[in-house]
Amino acid sequence: MIKHFLVFVFFAVHLQVAKAGIVVINGLTHSYKVEKGQIYKGSIEIENTGTAAQDVKIFFQDLSYNAEGNIFYKDPGSLKRSNSSWIKINTNLVSLKGKEKATIRYEISGPAELSESGSFWSAIMVEPVDKINPRENKPGVNISSIVRYAVQIITDHDSENAKPELKFESVKLDSEHGLKTLKIAIANNGNLFCKPRATVEIYDKNGKKTGDFTSMVMGLLPGNSKMFSIDISKIIPGKYSAVILATDEDENAFALNVDLEVKDD
């Protein structure tokens, strides 16, 4: 009996592992400011980088994630802040020849009865249709790799009366292979999508600053959390005090004071 396993890769992927050859070429996050009763149009550009023809299915999912690295996909409309019912797409299936590009168009309708402020979101999934060819009379396992993209459609309504509220969930120092990485779990307990970064300022026992380091910027949806990693390998072993800052793109800052012990490997 032949068993087939499908391996899914979400969000950021390396193009060279996309055996199906399908890539999204105009970004995985599309953001809009919307008003009640108004219509907004957008598109998702895809390309078949391979030489073989490929079918691609298009569908909706709600999504959420946490700082442990888990991503949860649910039926559209499952989450309180889902906007999947606001969005219409022009097709559910695209057939691409080798090296061909295609445009998936969508339309967002701001609900006339919308009263709540903040961010609403869902994902348009772009997934190659895997064609499995069973090996007749040959028992074993057939492993197929499918790269599935989640294109987030984020809509902000009445954003002037909404705001992110960043909260530190945990801070830990990992040491591995000669690298010392500060891992900071940050949640967005507000009602507005934001793009924060984490910064740590480190001071020795005499209060002298020994360094400051910054993470990469990442988008953070309301009610979700992510892990922000900061390389502090340049700090020599010792005991320190540190100020950790979470700052969004509007320079709203949230601070946390911690004691930090850097150990020698």
Give the total of domains: 2
The geometry reads as: globular
Instruction: Report Rg.
Output: 22 Å
User: Main β-sheet, in a few words?
Assistant: 6 strands, mixed
Q: So what's the oligomer here? A: single chain
Mean pLDDT: 90
Which stretches of 5+ consecutive residues score pLDDT under 50?
Answer: 1-20
Proportion of strand residues: over 45%
Q: From the 3D structure, determine the CATH topology of the largest domain.
A: Immunoglobulin-like
CATH architectural label of the largest domain: Sandwich
Secondary structure elements and pairings:
Layout: E1 2-9, E2 22-24, E3 29-34, E4 39-48, E5 54-65, E6 71-74, E7 87-89, E8 93-96, E9 101-109, E10 118-128, E11 140-147, E12 149-157, E13 166-176, E14 179-188, E15 197-203, E16 209-214, E17 225-231, E18 238-247, E19 253-262
Parallel strand pairs: 1-11, 3-12
Antiparallel strand pairs: 2-4, 4-9, 5-6, 5-8, 5-10, 7-9, 10-12, 13-14, 14-17, 15-16, 15-18, 18-19
Write a structural description.
- With 265 residues, this protein is an all-beta fold.
- The chain has two domains: 2-160, Immunoglobulin-like (Sandwich), CATH 2.60.40; 166-262, Immunoglobulin-like (Sandwich).
- 0% of the residues lie in helices and 56% in strands.
- The strands form five sheets. Strands 3, 5, 6, 8, 10 and 12 form a six-stranded mixed sheet that branches. Strands 2-4-9-7 form a four-stranded antiparallel sheet, with no helix packed on it.
- A hairpin with a 5-residue loop joins strand 15 (197-203) and strand 16 (209-214).
- The radius of gyration is 22 Å and the shape is globular.
